[in-house]
Design goal:
mainly alpha; 18 helices
Length: 522
Amino acid sequence: MRSDATARAGWRQWAGLAVLVLSAMLVMIDMSVLHLAVPRLSADLDPSASQLLWITDIYGFLIAGALIPMGALGDRVGRRRVLLIGAAMFGAASVLAAYAPTAETLIAARALLGLAGAALGPSTLSLISVMFHDPRQRTTAITIWMAGFMAGGAVGPLVGGVMLEYFWWGSVFLAAVPVMVLLVALGPVLLPEYRDPQPARLDLPSAVMSLMAALAVVYGIKEMAKDGFAWVPTAAIVLGLAVGVLFVRRQRRLTQPLLDLSLFSNRSFTVSLSTLTITVIFMLGTQFLMAQYMQMVLGLSPLTAGLWGLPLVIAGTVAIFVASALAGKIHRAHIFGAGLVIAAAGFAVLTQADASAGLPVVVTGSVLLFAGLMPVSGLGIDMIVSAAPPRQAGSAAAVGETTQELGGALGIALIGSLVNAVYHSRMTTVVPDHLPAAADTLPAALAAAQLLPEHLGNELVTHARNAFADGLQLSAAIAIPVLLGLACLTVLLLRHVGRDAHPQDDEYQPMETSSPQAPPAR
């Protein structure tokens, strides 16, 4: 059994963490940085409508689909090895994307970026879980990682805006290159190698099934969020769920499964994973609506709306560090409960966000929402990874990150569909007969208003903005009892779970990488 002195991390671990956080930020930045560049790359590469959809979506699809196989691969062959290969691939693919001469090349580059991002995600998080053996330091490290992860999503549009102000569209990809070069250079020095001392064979059929299931479900959900309940996205979701069932059945039969389903028998893991899923659904679904509300209801420019999104991230980041500091003194079940109640209060404020409420209501409600849910997300990820034996940390991290991807897509689809349904019901009776599309979406109504005389156009815009705000209010009102009920349930189920459980730390130690065959140090 190691002593407290040897359990605590030193400067090398914290320096390694800094490099890992930078790479996590870049993965998230690449999620959103492309959207601002779409008009320019469309003019340059002239992609078809289908190609443009694949350019924007293939990155997220492959990240969601490949996380579990990549996490399992890292557990088996070495997490640092997978991390460094992913970093090298990410840097090379970023250069390829930046200088892509055709739409097909850009799609291929974005696909490679997705696979590389999937390699980086679970490897980064699982390395953190075994670099920091002291439970409180581990919580702090994962908190820093989570804050950087979320900050990357927030600053992506701002980074893209600055790059596009001075350079060509491909420059938005080049910001990742120096960070990945830094990771490849410093990784072998700052990061130890970790892998299962008795690695199981990687089951390729399971990896393919996992990829297919996640890709089909995420694709179906995202397409349903855009086009409603059409047969193609519905069929994709059904197919993905069917493959997922077959994947689970195969894991139960295998003696060396790709994903050990015994993880789900751990209450801390299962409750934290479920809470994280619901949290991400509401957090990212509402964030998606807020961006639309600020731009199309309040009339803010994309850059101004992005800047007004910073208080949300700042509030969430401060809250997650406060929660991390309190985690050693207050049971996490109570922190989860308090965060969910604060988020419910934020939604209560958002029920007042009508078309004339302006920024104060929206920003105040969103700040409370992120201040409540970010600690739940951060500590939830910590509990998910810490609940697993260290040899399975990569798989646990991959499950947690896959849940975030699925939850984000599901949140946009569900909350977006609810708002669209309310919008359509309000607009059906006021839209001119010759402009039926205006009853479908707010952007369509704003475009249709340009075709009408000024007074009629202004009246249509007013109706459309009020209808969208009504949908936002209803979604916020529904969220309140859901979060309050989840708060009670989470406290009830987690109150007897130990604060700092991390099973079997002593069974899994860093490898000496000078000899790949060397046994793990004891």
